[in-house]
Structures are given as C-alpha cells and as structure tokens.
Amino acid sequence: MTPLPELLGRTLVIGLLALLAFSAAGQWPRRLPEWLARWLLQVVVVGLTVPLATVLVYLVLVGGDIASLLQNEHRISGFIWIAGSGLVVGPLLAMGALYRHRDAEARSQALGFELERSELERQALDARLRLLQAQIEPHFLFNTLANIRALVETGSPQAAPVLRSLIAYLRAAMPRLQNEAATLGDELILVRSYLELMHLRMPDRLCFRIEVPDNLRSLRFPPMALLTLVENAIRHGIDPGEEGGVIEVMAEASVAGSPVRVWVSDTGVGLTQSTGIGTGLRNLRERLKMFYGSSARLDMTENSPHGLRAELQFFP
C-alpha cells in the first residue's frame, strides 16, 4: 500500500498543476467563441488536467515505464483514487473559486458605481448650488443699484453717502460670496452692513435690531441665505409702506436635538399676493435643502398686527 505522506505529496503536485491550468485558462486564449463562456472553459480545463496530471506524476515515479505502472496493483489503485477524487473535487473547487471571484467583482463594481454616482451627485449639487447663488447675487445687487438710481433721479442728498456705503459693503461682501465654509456669524456681518446701507437710504422709515446668541454664530450657513430674507423684507415689507417699519433678525436653539431657528421679522405691509414667489425665495428653499437636507424648511407667517415673519429651521 502507498504510504499516506507519499499519497498526499502526489495529490498536492496534481492540485498545483490543476491550479496552474485554472489560472492559465482564465487568461488564455484572449478571445473565445461566443458559445463558450470563460468560466466553463476553466472548469473543463481543470477536469481534464487532473487525470492527465495524475498520469504524468505516476510516469515520473516509474521512470516512464508504463508496463511497470500497469502491473503494480497498488499504483493502479492510487491512480484511480487520486484521479477519481480530483475529477469530483477539482471542478467543484474551480466553480467555487469562480463564484467567489464573480461575487467579489460584482461587489467591487457595485461599489465603484456607487462611488461614481455619489461623485456625480456631489458635482451636480455643487453646480446647482453655484447656479442658484449666481442668480441670487445679481438679484440683490441690481435691486440695490435700482434704489440708488431712484435717489439720484430724485436729487436726494443721500445718494452719494449710500453709494459710498454700497462700495464699502461690496468690498467686504464679495470675498464671502463664494466661501463654502461660511458661518452664520459671517452672514450676520453682511446683514448688518446691508441694513446700515438701507438705513442710510431711508433713515426715517427703517429701524433694525439683530440679536443672535454667540454660540450659534459659528454654525455653517449658506452664503446670502439670511441676506435674501432681509432684502425681501425691505423690498416687500418696508418699501411699499408709507410709515416704513422695523426689521428684527433673531435666532435660537431651544434644547439639544431641536432644530436651529433663524428668523427675520418686519412690521411692514405684511403678506401680499407676490410675497414668497420671487426668485430669491424660491432659490433659498432649494439651497436650504441642498445645504442641510430635506428636513430644512422656510416658513412665512404674518406678524400681528401687521408685517411678515420669515423663519428658517434646520439641523446643523
């Protein structure tokens, strides 16, 4: 009887030859007929390699003497055992390896597609955010320039100071408009500058107050978002009314886990048919959802006895 170590050694050599044949069939030939799948070729090659490798191993053992091999009962039985086992186990192992390889490729491909999709979504959101922001900035600037033109046309002595304030404001504001890391504190600086500019234009009709806790000023905040609400309050609330009004900019976060609330309220003319449908507010709603997620919201309610309150709610 063939010793077990010798039998295991022969089996190991045959297994290595089958593995080499499996790997070679996975790479060659480069092109296969349409009716022949690569995995099927590899399984068939392994099935053919096992008996051929077994014959080769036994021929090496007997020095190429086929007659000596056929006359030795123990070697014949060992040949049959190894070849038979290899014919059963070899293709099964090959199919298992192919399955794991295909599964790993599928997971890798799925992960690659997911990463690519996430990158494309991020690029699309960035492009959309820049487009919305590009629409908002001219909207604000052209409205302000129109106000200055009205002062010039009416010969108001406030025209020159307002223009100087606008220039100073733009010098401070322009570097922040494209700042993706802007904070609520940065936005409040712009809001205060804008309100001071508007106060110069109508000193007897506009008062304002800004009260935001210091711990909220470091929160990330979309550039121009709060300024859009303030500009909307001036345009639709204070300007149309003969008596003007007061604008308040406030913020609070009640308890941990609750949304941050930032609002702009005015005592102007209140809700009108056109309030809330302008380009600025439409874009602001979209920017909030892209910046903070779908839970972010913009609510507009009437003040009592008159005026409007625009409130942002979001989870930072």
Output the CATH class name of the largest domain.
Alpha Beta
What would the principal axes of the Cα set say about the shape?
rod-shaped
- Based on CA atoms alone, the radius of gyration comes out at 39 Å
The low-confidence parts are none
The residue fraction in helices comes out at: 55-70%
Number of domains: 2
> What is the H/E string?
HHHHHHEHEEHEE
Description:
Helix 1 runs antiparallel to helix 2. The protein has a five-stranded mixed beta sheet, covered by helices on one side. It has helices at 4-27, 38-61, 66-71, 73-153, 159-177, 184-201, 225-238, 279-292, and strands at 206-211, 245-252, 260-266, 297-302, 308-314. It has two domains: 4-115, no CATH class; 156-314, 2-Layer Sandwich (Heat Shock Protein 90). The chain is built from eight helices and five strands; from the N terminus they run H-H-H-H-H-H-E-H-E-E-H-E-E. The protein is an alpha+beta fold. Pfam families: His_kinase. It comes from Roseateles oligotrophus.
Q: Which key phrases capture this entry?
A:
316 residues, alpha+beta, Heat Shock Protein 90, 2 domains, 5-stranded mixed beta sheet, 8 helices
Summarize the structure.
This protein is an alpha+beta fold.
Any chance you could write out the topology, listing elements then pairs?
Blueprint: H1 4-27, H2 38-61, H3 66-71, H4 73-153, H5 159-177, H6 184-201, E1 206-211, H7 225-238, E2 245-252, E3 260-266, H8 279-292, E4 297-302, E5 308-314
Parallel strand pairs: 1-2
Antiparallel strand pairs: 2-3, 3-5, 4-5
Helix pairs in contact: 1-2, 1-4, 2-4, 4-5, 4-8, 5-6, 6-7, 7-8
